[in-house]
Design brief:
Layout (H helix, E strand, L loop, with lengths): L3 E8 L13 E8 L4 E5 L6 H9 L6 E6 L2 E2 L10 E4 L11 H10 L5 H15 L14 H13 L6 E5 L7 H18 L2 E6 L2 H7 L2 E6 L2 E6 L1 H6 L4 H6 L6 E4 L1 E9 L2 E9 L6 E5 L4 E4 L4 E2 L1 E7 L3 E8 L2 E8 L10 E4 L5 E4 L2 E2 L3 E2 L1
Parallel strand pairs: 3-8, 3-9, 6-7, 7-8
Antiparallel strand pairs: 1-2, 1-4, 4-5, 9-10, 11-14, 12-13, 13-23, 14-21, 15-20, 16-20, 17-18, 18-19, 21-22
Helix pairs in contact: 2-3, 2-4, 3-4
Length: 358
């Protein structure tokens, strides 16, 4: 297990990058705590896999250093970093049995035969492949082969870190849930440092102790699921986390109120003068429909998703989403919305601004 330090790290795929825009991975300075589980979350092309491959040694950064437990491994090959990596698509030895595939990383390091047998049996049970241990990998489904890849990544207990690059892409939905649960259990049992790349917020939020949200090659927030939900530090975090995501509305902010298309929205904090693009953000869970006060809206449609309803409304060209508890009545005269002041965030140029007590 290892603490992983990213020191002044950045990467460009261009030979002579001239500006920040030329970098696929913009400058990072972070310490990732030994033994924690992290998820790298973001849309395609945001730099997640680039960062993972730099950590694993498959890619050499354009600038900066990678340290494992304060030891510089920037120029160390992958084999010397003592990590296990599972890729998006299965990598298995077709001519070997499932048992042999799972045992290979341990046998390659001279582990005791009795330990190998016991550990392989434990991992096979974890991935649901006890009945196929003696089958050749050739001819198995992509789903089964990826489970072998996951098992082979988890079979060693002495690694510095376990790295997963969207490993559940080819796994069926039910097995995804089971394997996420098993990965979480494995982490609690052995305390490996784990880094899990995904574009799926459900995978990230259910797997990780801390979620690392990336946007346009930059880490925009590292936090617990609760922190990402309640205090998105960047409008992208608010948009990307949640279903539906945070409502983001252009506004003017004056002290402890926001002016939105001529209407006032009370704020729980007081703000000084803000420059640039100013917006307020509030999650649909903290928006309430009203008949007589608040911002005037026009309801476009109502979606019943079982546990609650999602109301899609229009406010002078800006879409506002409202979550209404199942069973609550939505009257024909409910054409105004109120925001819970304690859950209204203020943003300047996409970054959250910390106010002062009102």
């Amino acid at each position: 297990m290892a603490k992983i330090t990213l020191d002044n790290l950045a990467h460009s795929y261009l030979p002579n990058p001239a500006s920040e825009d030329d970098f696929a991975l913009k400058e990072l300075n972070h310490d990732w705590v030994d033994g924690e589980a992290y998820a790298l979350l973001g849309s395609s092309g945001c730099g997640k896999s680039t960062l993972l491959n730099i950590i694993s040694g498959l890619l050499h950064p354009s600038q900066g250093r990678i340290l494992f437990n304060d030891v510089d491994v920037t120029h160390a090959p992958t084999a010397e970093r003592n990590i296990a990596q599972v890729f998006q698509f299965p990598v298995v030895y077709d001519t070997m049995t499932v048992r042999q595939n799972l045992a290979f990383p341990l046998q390659n390091r001279g582990a005791d035969a009795g330990y190998v047998a016991a550990r392989v049996q434990e991992i096979a049970r974890m991935i649901g492949m006890e009945e196929t241990l003696d089958r050749k990998a050739r001819g198995l489904t992509a789903d089964a082969k990826q489970k072998i890849s996951l098992g082979r990544g988890m079979v060693r207990e002495d690694v510095n870190a376990l790295l997963f690059d969207e490993p559940l892409t080819v796994i069926d939905p039910h097995m995804k849930w089971e394997l996420r649960t098993q990965l979480k259990s494995l982490h609690h049992q052995f305390g490996h440092t784990m880094i899990y790349v995904t574009h799926d917020q459900t995978e990230a939020l259910t797997f990780a102790d801390k979620v690392v949200v990336m946007f346009d090659g930059r880490v925009v927030q590292i936090g617990t699921p609760q922190e990402l939900f309640e205090r998105p530090e960047h409008t992208f975090v608010g948009y990307f986390i949640g279903s539906p995501g945070m409502n983001v509305i252009p506004a003017q902010v004056e002290g402890n109120r926001a002016i939105v298309s001529g209407s006032q929205v009370p704020l729980a904090q007081t703000y000084g003068k803000l420059d640039g693009k100013v917006e307020i953000g509030v999650r649909p869970e903290f928006v309430r429909l009203s008949e007589d006060e608040g911002l005037p809206v026009k309801i476009r449609r109502i979606e019943d998703v079982g546990r609650h309803k999602i109301v899609r409304a229009d406010f002078y060209g800006s879409e506002i989403n409202i979550i209404v508890e199942e069973g609550a009545q939505i009257g024909p005269d409910m054409n105004r919305v109120n925001f819970d002041p304690a859950h209204v965030n203020v943003y300047a140029n996409d970054w959250r601004v910390q106010g002062e007590a009102a």
